[in-house]
């Protein structure tokens, strides 16, 4: 693949998109200016918080992908080709007000007639497929290894040690959160009673002057909550409750050796049975919001006056439910990839991952299949602050940093909405060999089930941001191959030469270029310019 370089002042005379006119005023971001961008010291406005991933580094001093700039100066309302993007995830609320017009429909299938009209093996797969059936809770992969007594598995001893460590860890965290929530609730009640209002502010608490020792203790606890950067005590109590729910899930489901979660009737260790599950691609409960959030980042309807804007227009979202509350099964993921490819997807978003795998070869074979069929797979790097060159994370397209099975598999790390040394999200995995690019992934606002919206963070949010840019490229430049789209995403990004904090560890400061193969953060504006040259 040819390697490209962004010029410092490249004005192109050719037409970028048919009908858009001359591009004489379209100039890519000068790379020599990136490390001299003034740091943004003011708090993000509400509008910036909801849209920061679409903003421009030069104009807004926020490390977004210049999406809005690309629409204003390059796309300019032009109609591109529709692109099917498969979201392999936890299910999508396909009736959401900001997604209902961008959901893929299999026009060869007659809804709800109980027949396989298009003869693809999946009955009533109108908007995608659900490989989990009505299932929800599942074990983590290393717990399955122990539960199934797979003593011959190469990671059995590691799994055993991790289980013991994690069970103690989450038991302790659950207890600590419960105790803190109880103490905070008492303190909140005392302060509210003293101030005679429940919606008090930080200033109100700072103004409390008392000789009452218990009230002073309560006020100190509330001040501590504010010192953590929280806007209100109620928000922090909500986070504590979410944490308790997460730890309870971890203990009762994910780390439960006796859990019998799979309900589809197939054998997850036998690839000969492929047609299981059902056509209901929606989440089974409201809290199963991950897939809906991911879909909104890619393609929430733009400029409709509702919640959020997706990166891409002209997208059809194919929902494939294959990621449970726990670790996904390799068989489900391998078949989900093949389903997406065989039913017309040009891009697959995979915002999931794990550190143990029993059939990773099945998934790699499916990734290779997608590559041969000209489908781009956008993969989330993971959220454990790990160097993926040293620790394998699944899915991946290579074994032990060896040859890649596909040149259309791209792995994405996460950025914070804060340019400078703290721009790498502390949770984000990284790797000079195994992480290709970085993109906005922390504090991302998007769709959640039942016409709601929320802010979430993770490389799970960074991957769909890149999938959205890839969809723009494939929409307006449909002749480009998936491998070329990947290279454009890597080569057209903004190169950052500055040093950054790695893994949230202030003692670990490295050049940004050490953390990713490209040394760049994805930029939609530059990507479209580069695509036009091909």
UniProtKB/TrEMBL annotation:
InterPro entries: Pept_S8_subtilisin_bacteroid, Peptidase_S8/S53_dom, Peptidase_S8/S53_dom_sf, Peptidase_S8/S53_subtilisin, Peptidase_S8_Asp-AS, Peptidase_S8_His-AS, Peptidase_S8_Ser-AS, Peptidase_S8_subtilisin-rel. Keywords: Hydrolase, Protease, Serine protease, Signal. SUPFAM superfamilies: Subtilisin-like. Residues 259-287 are annotated as: Disordered. One of its GO terms (molecular function) is serine-type endopeptidase activity. The active site is at residues 89, 290, 460. It comes from the Bacteria. Residues 1-24 form the signal peptide. Residues 80-492 form the Peptidase S8/S53 domain. The keyword Phosphoprotein does not apply. One of its GO terms (biological process) is proteolysis. It holds the Pfam family Peptidase_S8. Belongs to the peptidase S8 family. This is S8 family peptidase. The lineage of its organism: Bacteria, Pseudomonadati, Bacteroidota, Flavobacteriia, Flavobacteriales.
């Amino acid at each position: 693949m040819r390697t490209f370089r962004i010029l410092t002042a490249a004005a192109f005379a050719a037409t970028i998109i048919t009908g858009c006119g001359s591009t004489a005023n379209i100039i890519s971001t000068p790379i020599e200016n990136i490390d001299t961008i003034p740091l943004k010291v003011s708090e993000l406005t509400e509008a910036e918080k909801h849209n920061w991933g679409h903003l421009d580094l030069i104009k807004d001093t926020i490390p977004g992908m210049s999406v809005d700039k690309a629409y204003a100066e390059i796309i300019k309302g032009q109609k591109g080709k529709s692109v099917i993007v498969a979201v392999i995830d936890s299910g999508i609320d396909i009736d959401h007000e900001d997604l209902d017009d961008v959901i893929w429909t299999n026009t060869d299938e007659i809804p709800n007639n109980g027949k396989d009209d298009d003869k693809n093996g999946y009955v009533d797969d109108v908007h995608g497929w659900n490989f989990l059936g009505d299932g929800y809770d599942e074990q983590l992969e290393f717990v399955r290894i122990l539960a199934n007594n797979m003593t011959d598995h190469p990671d059995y001893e590691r799994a055993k040690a991790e289980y013991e460590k994690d069970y103690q860890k989450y038991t302790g965290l659950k207890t600590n959160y419960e105790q803190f929530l109880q103490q905070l609730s008492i303190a909140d009640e005392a302060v509210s009673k003293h101030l005679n209002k429940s919606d008090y502010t930080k200033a109100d608490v700072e103004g409390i002057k008392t000789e009452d020792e218990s009230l002073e203790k309560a006020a100190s606890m509330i001040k501590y909550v504010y010192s953590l950067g929280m806007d209100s005590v109620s928000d922090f109590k909500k986070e504590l409750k979410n944490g308790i729910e997460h730890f309870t899930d971890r203990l009762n489901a994910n780390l439960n050796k006796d859990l019998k979660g799979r309900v589809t009737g197939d054998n997850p260790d036998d690839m000969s049975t492929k047609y299981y599950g059902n056509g209901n691609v929606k989440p089974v409960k409201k809290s199963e919001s991950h897939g809906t959030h991911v879909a909104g980042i890619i393609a929430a309807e733009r400029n409709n006056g509702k919640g959020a804007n997706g990166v891409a227009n002209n997208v059809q979202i194919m929902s494939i439910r294959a990621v449970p509350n726990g670790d996904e099964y390799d068989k489900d993921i391998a078949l989900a990839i093949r389903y997406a490819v065989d039913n017309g997807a040009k891009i697959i978003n995979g915002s999931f991952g794990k550190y143990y795998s029993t059939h990773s070869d099945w998934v790699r074979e499916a990734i290779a299949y997608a590559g041969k069929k000209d489908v781009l797979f956008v993969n989330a790097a993971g959220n454990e602050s790990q160097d993926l060159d040293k620790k394998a994370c699944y899915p991946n397209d290579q074994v032990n940093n060896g040859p890649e099975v596909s040149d259309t598999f791209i792995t994405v790390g996460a950025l914070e909405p804060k340019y400078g040394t703290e721009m790498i999200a502390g949770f984000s995995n990284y790797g000079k060999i195994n992480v290709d690019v970085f993109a906005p992934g922390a504090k991302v606002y998007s769709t959640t089930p039942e016409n709601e919206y929320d802010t979430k963070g993770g490389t799970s949010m960074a991957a769909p941001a890149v999938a959205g840019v890839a969809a723009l490229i494939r929409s307006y430049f449909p002749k480009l191959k998936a491998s070329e789209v990947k290279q454009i995403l890597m080569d057209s990004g903004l190169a950052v030469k500055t040093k950054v904090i790695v893994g949230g560890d202030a003692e670990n400061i490295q050049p940004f270029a050490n953390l990713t193969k490209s040394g760049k953060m994805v930029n939609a504006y530059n990507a479209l310019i580069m695509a036009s040259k091909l």
